[in-house]
Every structure is written in C-alpha cells, then in structure tokens.
Design goal:
Blueprint (H helix, E strand, L loop, with lengths): L1 E5 L4 H12 L6 E5 L8 E4 L2 E4 L3 H7 L3 E4 L3 H13 L3 E4 L15 H4 L9 E3 L3 H17 L1 E10 L6 H16 L31 H14 L5 E8 L6 E9 L5 H9 L4 E3 L11 H4 L5 E8 L6 E8 L3 H17 L4
C-alpha cells in the first residue's frame, strides 16, 4: 500500500503523518509530497526520515491513495492528474466539496456512498465536520428543521503563520519585546476576537459560513435543513468550539438526546453542569472524538435544543477524518 501525503510539510500535512502513524495505517511505502521549494526536505514518519518529492514524481510512483492538504489551487490543478493515473485522492481543500460529482464524506455519516469509481473524495470543512457528527444521530431521530451556529475557531485553522502571530503578540505583551512576527490576520488576535473567517460574499456572509450551510445539507443528504452561521476566530489553540441551536420537526426527550449522542460513534458527551463539566478546546486537543455538552432545552420555542460542540480541528476536523476515509476505502476494497 503506497500512500502519498501531498502538502506533507504543512501544519495539516504534518498532522496527517502523525495520525497515519498512530492509527497504524497499512503503509508499505510513504511518499511525502510538497511544492518544488520543499522538494528534498525531510519529514519524519515512524522514526524514519523520508525525502519530500514533487507532484509528478508522486504520480509516476503510482500510490494507491493520495491524501491532499495543499490548498485549493493545488488540488484543482493536481487532483485530476492523480485521479487520471488511477490514484484515489482524499482532498482536504474546499476545491471539490460542492462538486455534485464528488462525494463529501464524514465516515460516521455517509461513507456508504463511496465506490471504486470515486477517484476524488472531498474532506469537509473542519467546523462542518464536528457539527454534523453531533447532528446526524439527532437528525435521524427527530428530523432537523433549522440550525443556528456560532463558532469559536482556533488559530490553528488558519495555519502556522497565525500560530506565529498569536505567539508573537503574546510574547510581546508579556515581555515588552518588539520582536517581529508575521501577520496572518488584518488585526491582532491575542486578547481579541475576529468575527471574520475567509472572505465576505455578496450576501454578507463569509465563505466559511456558507461552507457550513452547503456542506451540512450535502453530508446529511437533506437540502431542507436550514442552516445559518456566524464564524469567529479566537486566540485559542487545540480545537474549535461551536454554540449550536437546533430546531426539530418532532418533539424530543432530553435524556434520550443524551443517550443517542453517548451511543453514537465518534462522540463523547461531557455534560455535568453540577460539577462544571463541559467540553473545552484544551481537553479536545490531540483527540479524535467530537465532544458535546451544555445540552438544554431552548425555552423560547418548542422542539429546540441548545448544545456546545468542541473538537480538535487539525485532527477530526482535517487529518483524522481524511485518514478515516482512507481506512474505509482499504477495509472495503475500494482502492
């Protein structure tokens, strides 16, 4: 099983290598791939060093699977070339997510749609993944009408430059230093909140907000679900958090909701307000599960639930979900 990791030197690519190693994915040969400027650099995998190769060399090596985390423009250009060579691509960018001919997959929910003919498979947006993992069992039980979500997203979702900005600002604040650091954002992020993730679209929402709307409908296979989102960047590392208000078609029982979530794959319920127990990014860091808590009835309208969802955006929100897709492909002889 030859496996290529495209974007292997980036923040998510490095996490993909980590997750592949942790989960003992059946790799016989690893092909770390990156842009020309990174060719020849070394990455570590299971204690061994591997030299980074270029795109065409990776195609020529004919891996069974290529997991991409190299940005939308790279995926748009190169994923079809890999696919044309018979390589199954699992792509972490937004390039293919809303293409009606490409599956958008969260394995706990809709991996059953995958076939041997699917050569480009889209990995959803990080904030969408954790939300739909929690929503899926509730949608099956009560049918969701409408979702109102506000996100509190880690700087790691932007990348290394944003982490460096936060750490640079924090060091400057504590030491009075005037050391230079990169600006990933237009504004300071330490001791601040930025209510913009990605660019604004014509309707006043950001691209990140519209991703959550459209991807939720596609993954849950139900265009009738209405979703409205506000996505916010906060000075946190370790995971994304979401405040989610869900209106159902049918009445629900709160104890049953908790039981449904507790018995669903990939979910951990942390909901003990008497002892101040609820999900937080620091507890989700380096974990693959989606953590759910603050479960309570919306007292302003019927059949409506409030919940708080937290997950490590670099793991379940990106790397782990992609690796889980690859695991499903291997387990079901689809590659």
């Amino acid at each position: 099983m030859k496996v290529a990791v495209v974007g292997a030197t980036g923040l998510v690519g490095s996490k993909m290598l980590q997750v592949l190693a942790e989960r003992n994915f059946p790799i016989t040969e690893l092909l770390p791939v990156a842009s020309e400027k990174s060719v020849g650099k070394e990455v570590e995998f299971k204690g061994n060093k591997y030299k980074v190769i270029g795109m065409q060399d990776a195609i020529d090596a004919k891996p069974a699977i290529a997991i991409f985390s190299a940005g939308g423009s790279t995926s748009t250009e190169w994923a079809p070339k890999f696919a044309a060579a018979g390589i199954t691509v699992v792509d972490n960018s937004s390039a293919w997510r809303m293409d009606p001919t490409k599956p958008l997959v969260v394995p706990e929910i809709n991996a059953d749609i995958l076939t041997t003919n699917d050569k480009i498979i889209a990995n959803p947006n990080c904030s969408t993944i954790q939300m739909v993992v929690a929503l899926n069992p509730l949608h099956k039980a009560y049918k969701i009408k409408r979702v109102v979500v506000s996100t509190y997203q880690s700087v790691t979702g932007t990348g290394k430059k944003a982490v460096d900005q936060l750490m640079g600002e924090r060091a400057k604040t504590s030491s009075g230093s005037v050391a230079e650091y990169p600006m990933a954002y237009k504004y300071p992020i330490d001791l601040n909140v930025i209510p913009q993730i990605d660019v604004f679209t014509d309707n006043g929402y950001t691209k990140e907000e519209m991703k959550m709307v459209k991807e939720t409908n596609k993954i849950l296979r139900d265009d009738s679900i209405k979703v409205t989102a506000t996505t916010v960047r906060i000075p946190v590392m370790g995971g994304h958090s979401e405040s989610v208000n869900v209106e159902f078609e049918n009445e629900y029982d709160l104890a049953e909701v908790k039981s449904l979530l507790e018995t669903s794959s990939g979910i951990v319920v942390v909901d003990d307000t008497a002892n101040a127990q609820y999900p937080m990014p620091k507890d989700a860091h380096e974990k693959d599960e989606v953590f759910v808590g603050r479960l309570r009835r919306d007292e302003t309208q019927p059949k409506t639930l409030n919940m708080w969802i937290v997950s490590d955006n670099l793991r379940k929100g990106a790397a782990t979900n992609a690796v889980q897709i690859a695991e499903y492909l291997v387990a079901n002889n689809l590659v």
